[in-house]
Write a structure and sequence with these properties.
Elements lengths: L2 E4 L2 E4 L6 H7 L23 E4 L6 E2 L10 E3 L3 H14 L17 H9 L16 E3 L3 E3 L9 H8 L7 E3 L6 E3 L11 H7 L5 E3 L12 E6 L8 E7 L2 E6 L11 H5 L14 E4 L2 E4 L2 H17 L3 E6 L5 H15 L4 E2 L17 H5 L3 E5 L3 H4 L1 H12 L4 E5 L12 E3 L6 H12 L15 H13 L2 E5 L5 H14 L4 E2 L6 H6 L10 H10 L2 E7 L3 H4 L3 H9 L3 E6 L4 H4 L3 E4 L8 E4 L5 E4 L12 H12 L9 H12 L21 E6 L13 H6 L4 E4 L1 H7 L6 E6 L2 E9 L8 E4 L16 E8 L3
Parallel strand pairs: 1-5, 16-17, 16-23, 18-19, 18-21, 19-20, 21-22, 23-24, 24-25, 28-32, 29-31
Antiparallel strand pairs: 1-2, 3-4, 3-5, 6-7, 7-10, 8-9, 11-12, 12-13, 14-15, 14-25, 26-27, 28-33, 29-32, 30-31, 30-33
């Protein structure tokens, strides 16, 4: 291995190590603009020039590999002159507006000027100025501040496979940014802002709120999906104002939901005091009065022979599930519990891989039953990475995939409701059985399936089963995995569904949410506790939800906002956000992580574990003496160490009902998927209302134009919405957006995400 001396320090490094990496190993700082550890070296900015003894000119440290015997100087007079010259060149057009720039305090240009000396200014001509571009509710682009490092462009190309963001014009008129769009929001926009070393790309959400040095940062875990990205929560005066992602694990990148989807924490419509129903209105009461009222009513129902159930969001902590489960089972005496409020009817299963790094090492991928970029967006980037670098092949059986399709070797794009039929056909191909009849009505060709089967047999794939798969679909995928010698990675709804499962927050008899709601309709269940979820928004059977809630004797809702579910409640208890109470969560690889509290709960808001503890005390059977969430954590760790067996759920899901002209998939738009996105103002601006998407050719056949207003009819319900064209939608089918609290699209569903719809032009 080559030995080099850097500023008098000798070091031995592996072949291929760059000067910059070697210097980092011995703690020598070399300033950079264009270099980033998770992007390919570009050698653009020349800020990292160093002197190598015997070389006629300075060398860029980020792209120059060391050679044995080199003497390297990172702070010689020649290097200092070069840095000052380069900083002077950068500042020719760069506006000196640090007092009003949101990047001040974390700006790399600002830091370099302080560290390496203020350069001379010899040019006093009027600088070339660009207009500020407000690219929608997420980011602001100020080209005047850009240093042309192209980190944002390279991220767009290397990680995302190219977007409408690039470099055009030349010389001093060079422009970095979107070519045509006035609004830029493409699922991973936050990373482009985070990568910018200066204030050229800043957050519209954080704009002019405070200074970075006035924020107190607390390490926590994202609450939107089960990837479990680490976040640093920036708080000031009880307000969550900024989120940073400063760790390379589990991934160096996060999605926009993780970076920008925290506005609900500070939302003005939060209700932070308990409410009790009196006639047709809800009146504010104290926490003690509310807990006394709830415990008394539940106890009365149980003593009179009534049943009580609890339905809890899959986004909470293990401590919440453990104590609430203990309250229901040990105090109330009920086994009717569930967390699968998005409508899934499967339980978590342990995967063959244990990290995103393991995912990236796969030779091939088979993804079935989920648009990963919507529900597990960082996982989608990991899958795309191997495909983009040419190491892996990707095979999709996903209706209307919105991101990974451009990396796919084969994309079986079936009509809505036919994904599992195509999966069954794939299993038949691999088993040497006839499969042609299985593909009828799916819009997937035999050639596509043959090529997919051949590719999967040539390389050892990673099989990923999405959250749309039914129990029968999971059995099919396991069969495919057995033939290929692979254990599938199954994905679940919610950021802590695996934690809820491990804590035992489910019915031992295997009753699903649908079963529990039906028991509410029949009158067997008299009381219901719902936490942190609007059933009307997210459970895919709004009609059943309405019948169930209308038939209850007593409904308690623990939430942050007044939702339609709260409107049916007899008592409302205010909930905390993920930033206001800590606890344990379990990510998609069954790795336990700790969420830390960034600030105190607002007013009388309480986490679920504290509600359960308070109710048990009012009942007269306290669960224990737990003062803080840390007191509950040892019990959680003990439970996590145990093996939990799930009940069988086969046969519990009905076939997709596709009566109607057009089979449709009801799917969340990206910025409406996740936790409480209806109360993230930026996301509401990006997707203000639901819409229908069709394949352009199919839309033309039906006589529609892109942007038309149409009437969508499903099971006698009519909805007026916009229609858009998208190439990835399978021809002959439609994708209808859902996930809007003020638009009851779930009323059209019957327990699954597929329905048959009819479309006609709306009259003006």
């Amino acid at each position: 291995m080559p030995k080099v001396v850097i500023d008098g320090i000798e070091i031995e490094v592996p072949p291929g190590t760059t000067i910059l990496n070697a210097a980092q190993r011995v703690g020598v700082e070399i300033p950079v603009f264009c270099y980033h550890p998770y992007l390919k070296p570009a050698g653009i900015c020349r800020m990292c020039l160093v002197e190598v003894e015997g070389m006629p000119r300075l060398l860029p440290a980020c792209i120059t590999e060391v050679q044995d015997g080199w003497e390297i100087y990172t702070n010689s007079d020649r290097v200092k002159d070069a840095r000052e010259w380069l900083l002077e060149f950068v500042l020719v057009n760069h506006p000196l507006e640090c007092p009003i720039c949101d990047e001040a305090g974390e700006c790399e240009l600002q830091n370099f000027v302080f560290k390496f000396g203020e350069p001379r200014k010899r040019l006093y001509d009027e600088p070339f100025k660009y207009p500020t571009r407000y690219l929608g509710p997420l980011i602001v682009h100020q080209m005047n501040r850009c240093v042309l490092c192209r980190r944002c462009v390279r991220f767009s190309d290397e990680a995302m496979g190219g977007t409408d963001w690039g470099v055009y014009e030349r010389g001093y008129r060079t422009i970095v940014g979107p070519y045509e769009r006035d609004v830029f929001a493409q699922k991973y926009t936050f990373n482009m802002e985070a990568l910018c070393p200066v204030g050229a790309i800043t957050s519209n959400i954080y704009r002019y709120k405070t200074r970075i040095w006035k924020l107190d940062f607390t390490n926590s875990v994202c609450a939107h999906c089960e990837v479990g990205c680490w976040l640093d929560l920036g708080e000031r005066d009880g307000q969550l104002l900024k989120v940073l992602h400063r760790r390379g694990y589990p991934s160096p990148w996060i999605c926009d939901k993780g970076g920008y989807g925290f506005e609900y924490v500070n939302h003005s419509e939060r209700i932070t005091v308990p409410l009790r129903r009196e006639g047709n209105r809800l009146r504010g009461v104290t926490t003690d009065e509310a807990l006394e009222f709830v415990a008394g009513r539940l106890k009365g129902l149980v003593e009179s022979g009534g049943k009580v159930a609890a339905l809890v969001s899959p986004h909470l902590t293990c401590e919440d599930y453990l104590l609430m489960g203990s309250f229901m089972k040990e105090v109330v005496g009920s086994d009717y519990l569930d967390y699968r409020l998005y409508g899934g009817n499967t339980y978590p299963e342990r995967p063959a891989v244990d990290s995103l790094e393991g995912v990236e090492k796969a030779e091939a991928y088979l993804v079935v039953g989920e648009d990963l970029s919507v529900h597990h967006p960082v996982l989608a980037l990991s899958v795309a990475k191997g495909c983009k670098e040419g190491r892996a092949s990707l095979y999709l059986i996903v209706t209307g995939d919105s991101f990974l399709f451009k990396f796919a070797a084969e994309h079986a794009n079936p009509l809505p409701g036919k994904e599992e039929k195509v999966l069954e056909a794939l299993a038949s191909v691999l088993g040497g059985k006839d499969y042609a009849s299985l593909l009828e009505g799916t819009e997937v060709s035999e050639d596509t399936l043959k090529a997919m089967a051949q590719g999967l047999q040539e390389k050892k794939p990673l099989i990923i089963g999405g959250s749309r798969l039914t129990p029968e679909g999971r059995v099919l995928l396991k069969g495919v995995g057995e033939r290929l010698g692979i254990t599938p990675l199954f994905l679940d709804w919610g950021s802590n569904s695996k934690g809820a499962f491990q804590m035992g927050f489910w019915s031992p008899g295997g009753e699903s949410v649908e079963d529990i709601l039906n028991k509410c309709v029949s009158g067997e269940i008299k009381g219901l506790f719902v936490s942190s979820m609007d059933l009307f928004r997210d459970y895919p059977n709004g009609t059943l939800v309405k019948e169930a809630l209308s038939n209850l004797d007593f409904l308690v809702v623990h939430d942050m906002f007044f939702t339609e579910t709260v409107a049916y409640s007899d008592c409302y208890l205010p909930a905390t956000s993920f930033a206001e109470d800590g606890g344990t969560v379990v990510n998609m690889f069954w790795e336990a992580k700790k969420r830390n509290r960034a600030f105190k709960p607002k007013d009388e808001s309480m986490p679920l574990w504290q509600v359960a503890l308070g109710l048990s005390r009012k009942w007269g059977r306290p669960l224990g003496d737990f003062g803080t969430v840390e007191d509950v954590t040892p019990l959680v760790r003990e439970r996590l160490s145990q093996v939990v067996e799930a009940p069988s759920t086969l046969g519990g899901v009905k076939a997709a009902h596709l009566k109607g002209d057009i089979p449709a998939l009801f799917e969340y738009p990206f910025y409406r998927a996740g936790m409480r996105t209806d109360f993230c103002n930026a996301f509401v601006q990006l997707v203000p209302e639901p819409y229908v998407t069709l394949n352009p050719e199919y839309g033309d056949e039906l006589g529609f134009k892109n942007g038309d207003i149409v009437i969508m009819e499903v099971d006698g319900n009519q909805f007026r919405m916009k229609l858009f064209f998208r190439d990835e939608v399978p021809r002959g089918g439609a994708i209808v957006s859902r996930g809007f609290s003020d638009f009851p699209i779930t009323r059209a569903l019957k327990g699954l995400w597929y329905r048959g719809i009819e479309l006609r032009a709306a009259k003006e």
